[in-house]
Amino acid sequence: MLARRPRDPLQSLHRNGQELKQQVDSLLSESQLKGALEASKRRDIYQRCIQLKQAIDENKNTLQKLKKADEPAPVGNYHQKKEEELNLLDTLTHQLQELAVFVNSENRTEFEALTEREEDDDFEEEDEEDNDNDKEESEESDGEEEEMEEEENQERESQRQMTSKEYAAVGDFTAQQSGDLTFKAGEILHIIEKNPDGWWMAKNAKGNKGLVPRTYLEPCPKEEGQEPSEECHEDVEVGDETAEGAEVTQRTDSHWSAVQTAFSEQANTVAVLTTMGAIPAGFRPSTLFQLLEEGNQFQTSYFLQPELTPSQLAFRDLLWDTKTGTIRSRPTRVSLILTLWSCKMIPVPGVSIQVLSRHMRLCLFDGNKVLSNIHSVRATWQSKKPKTWTFSPQVTGTLPCLLDGDCFIRSSSSSPDLGILFELGISYIRNSTGERGELSCGWVFLKLFDASGVPIPAKTYELFLSGGTPYERGVEVDPSGTRRAPGSVFHQMITMRRQPHLLVKLRSLNRRSRDTLSLLPETFIGSMCYVHLLILYRQFLGDVLLKDRTNTQSAELISNPILATFPKLLVQPDVMDVLKSSWAEKESTLKRAEKTGSS
């Protein structure tokens, strides 16, 4: 008798996923029974949630590593089937998280009196139990607390933070889909769980629970004399102290605080403009503009400077090549050229505000934090087509740097979610008050690698924009203009064409362009029109900091006007245009052999 042929890898993972789904469905049904609210039963359900979550994570990790080449026989619609399996596992994970949060919150109600002495930031207590049961519940709580600590240690990889906190809403939020929690500005929310995707499980004063976006929340003001909690340092780490003793902080995880600041300061203005119909409901204060305003951490000049090694005694990305007499080239994981074509169907603001400029900001992004400098390109438009923005217009003479839509992108990040974040924005002035501001008109994220880690092809992409901020989901740019499409394919196509979208083109590099860009920093975004000026500056850095230094351990100050001045010129587009024109004028007088040598 022939041995049974082993099941194909994808088929085997599909069967495992179906078995996990049956177990999750069974657990959910069991949690709805009357006896499920007993303390011992809740502990059992919670433990099973953890075990199922670990099994789902293992299945998901195996599925993500699986490739089409691993299949012994051809599989039709392989990538679609793999994506469906991943979506199923994500759904099961979300269901288990909600169930675990519910069960755990019920457990915490029973021994809330005990945990109040151990936690710094407990908030409103739920209904107190009868005094006759206090002693019995306290004894149960001691055992439950030990179990909870063991369970939380097992869940560190999934980044579950179950400590309750109170946050105040800085703006109104309407539920976008089932499971979201609607709230008003100023409302106090009790945070139950902090998910790494920025959507937190919260409970309001009425006891309703649901997911809320972190960008709408800020910690409640602390009373005088209260010790600072760990939450204060969630997204920052303490750096060196200045001469006055003030702490210098630097963001390390994500950039939520900057988004929160923008909402706190501009939420009222945006709410008024939205209510008046001056802007669509999907417009928000610009996230990338807020990051640029915070300091130089995301400025081009910051990333252009050489990076020190951990020992602070040498440069990590600036090395000297003694054979060629130039700085050494450094290949990167991502090195390509991006061309911005146009944006279409962008909503036009109302007459109560005056638009001063339209622009595109872009940066490298991993879904959580900005990884590069933020590059800006000015857009042009015509009064006949106010909903269409274009880049790199035809002009007489040299195209200004600010209007050039050809950008280079370099990155050595190993993140599987690495991509480009595009944010459309306008700067405006209110006609009634003269108040100025900057709004985001939509955003889109283009991942540079597929699920198997292969770079996406170099071609033209049509990207549909989302409203809100990059940390929100399910928000449309202009919900009022969206209508449910009829069943016909033709009407669906027409509706899709009416959605705001962006046209960009990714271009692969030839050998000469690749060698040229390899002289730039490993992580950098900029305009192709002044790339030679950037390389020249890096060469000056190599000459002064590496070649001409007789003693690398010398602490003497270096006085060089070019090194001191050029980074400041990067934010002066008019000066950069003059330098670019001078370069082109000088290059036109060179012979072919001289041009080859200079490049």
Walkthrough of the structure:
About 35% of the residues lie in helices and about 20% in strands. With about 600 residues, it is of the alpha+beta class. The strands form 4 sheets. Strands 8, 11, 12, 13, 14, 15, 16, 17, 18, 19 and 20 form an 11-stranded antiparallel β-sheet that branches.
Give a summary of the structure in a few sentences.
By secondary structure, the chain is of the alpha+beta class. It has helices at 9-31, 39-65, 78-110, 112-115, 134-154, 256-276, 287-294, 300-304, 489-497, 511-517, 531-547, 561-569, 573-588, 592-598, and strands at residues 165-169, 188-194, 199-203, 209-213, 217-219, 236-241, 247-251, 284-285, 320-321, 326-327, 334-344, 353-365, 375-382, 385-390, 406-411, 419-430, 436-447, 460-464, 501-507, 524-527.
How would the blueprint of this fold be written?
Layout: H1 9-31, H2 39-65, H3 78-110, H4 112-115, H5 134-154, E1 165-169, E2 188-194, E3 199-203, E4 209-213, E5 217-219, E6 236-241, E7 247-251, H6 256-276, E8 284-285, H7 287-294, H8 300-304, E9 320-321, E10 326-327, E11 334-344, E12 353-365, E13 375-382, E14 385-390, E15 406-411, E16 419-430, E17 436-447, E18 460-464, H9 489-497, E19 501-507, H10 511-517, E20 524-527, H11 531-547, H12 561-569, H13 573-588, H14 592-598
Antiparallel strand pairs: 1-2, 1-5, 2-3, 3-4, 6-7, 8-17, 9-10, 11-14, 11-15, 11-19, 12-13, 12-16, 13-14, 15-20, 16-17, 18-19
Helix pairs in contact: 1-2, 1-3, 2-3, 6-7
